[in-house]
Please model this.
Amino acid sequence: MLAEIITIGDEILIGQTIDTNSAFISIQLNQIGISVVQITSVPDNISHITEAFTNAENRASVIIITGGLGPTKDDITKQALCSFFNTKTVFSSEVMKQVEFLFTSRGLKMPETNKEQAMIPENCVPLKNSYGTAPGMWFEKNGKVFVSLPGVPYEMKNLMEEEIVPRLKAKFKTPYILHETVLTQGIGESFLMEIISEWEESLIKENIKLAYLPEFGKVKLRLSQTGENFSELKEKAERKINELIKLISEYYYGRNEEKLEEVIGKLLKDKKMTLATAESCTGGYIAHLITSVAGSSEYYLGSVVAYSNMIKEEQLNVSKSLLDSEGAVSKPIVEQMAIGVQKKFNSDFAIATSGIAGPAGGTEEKPVGTVWIAIAYRDGVFSQKHLFGKNREKNIKQSSVTALNMLRKILLDY
Ligand code: ATP
Ligand code: MG
Model:
């Protein structure tokens, strides 16, 4: 079963709005065994819109459209649908009641322009939009389904979950698509590929597809399968994933949507231990990751963003003579920073970073991307030098996830 998504709106084509609707719809369709074969974005222009409908109809059985349903003049999706289906709009008292209710339930009088929302193409089934005035619309033509949804993401999401997915499941008996993702940190995709090449080969006869998804210091490995029996798919995925984890145990930290900061949070909570951070080149990004996890106050005490040497000395007790002789980006300094913040906050663990994020500031000896990371614990300190890349954002993010993973490994054995 194949689907296409068409998103409508000038704002997408000028880069003002990022098309997140398509990503959400793709996930929803995939979960019920419908594969998306193309995503198209078109401007608020009748001929572009109808041409996209015609092209999609030739390739797919399910066509989901979002955007351009508002009562304002620039929204012309309804007009395009009428022209495509060769029909006209008619008044729907059912939609009118729902639109009126949206206003009266908030004690407001409905503006006249909203009456237009109750005019819908004659051949569609209107679907209730609980959060906005534009109804969803379901069309069927020669066994194919067209669905038109509002562009506002939370309205679209609610309609997908409450109306579209159940209707698609009922109409088409679809196979299951199972995606399982294995998360790794600290190894590049080509090195990973070398380690797992034999295992990867073995996936072919199991009908499992593998994708490498790299992002700032992490690589996700996604296993995908299609089949009629969900528990068989699940069992096969678990078996192959267990084999995989044995091969890459050093780099493996979690599954699916799990985040490194959540993993270390759980470990710290279980051990009833606390953490502090002293960040130079990461500028508080590690603190941001840690505190983005709900409940982090149970184990995270705080941070010193020690950007200048003066703050390193005054707040973290880093030695001035070592700063002068070794430079801020060095093993003794990053270790003193970690120990300094651990003592200051009396935490069980501390992370410290010091590096050259770039683009300027590199030397031959310490090029841009050189980052020292230290983890202090009650009875010692451990540090590592890394060489990342030339890009500032990448260096900050990669340093942060690397530091979290260093802490994770220490916590596992602690
Ligand atoms: P309404 O009835 O509320 O006017 P609409 O169907 O007319 O809904 P649009 O006017 O096209 O929707 O867009 C409404 C809002 O939704 C805009 O802020 C737009 O940026 C956002 N939006 C539209 N399309 C998308 C998309 N594909 N992904 C994410 N956001 C989107
Ligand atoms: Mg629009």
